[in-house]
Amino acid sequence: MGGKTDLERVVAYVPPELKKELEEWAKVEERSVSWLVAKLIDKALQERCSQKNSSKVVNIH
């Protein structure tokens, strides 16, 4: 477990109750909290990108 990775580290501070929820969720998924949070961030960024692309208005003159 562990080892070198080309991934960047991001630190976030969350209330204890959120951390507990994340730990429980990660345990159910048999994953680490880090993996779970990375997937949540990835999904949020994909949704944001999708929203940005759908809100672009093509202006044809």
From TrEMBL:
Taxonomic classification: Bacteria, Bacillati, Cyanobacteriota, Cyanophyceae, Nostocales
Pfam families membership: RHH_5
InterPro entries, alphabetized: RHH_5, Ribbon_hlx_hlx
Domain annotation CopG-like ribbon-helix-helix: ranges: 8-48
GO biological process terms held by the UniProt record: regulation of DNA-templated transcription
Annotated protein name in UniProt: CopG-like ribbon-helix-helix domain-containing protein
Organism of provenance: Dulcicalothrix desertica PCC 7102
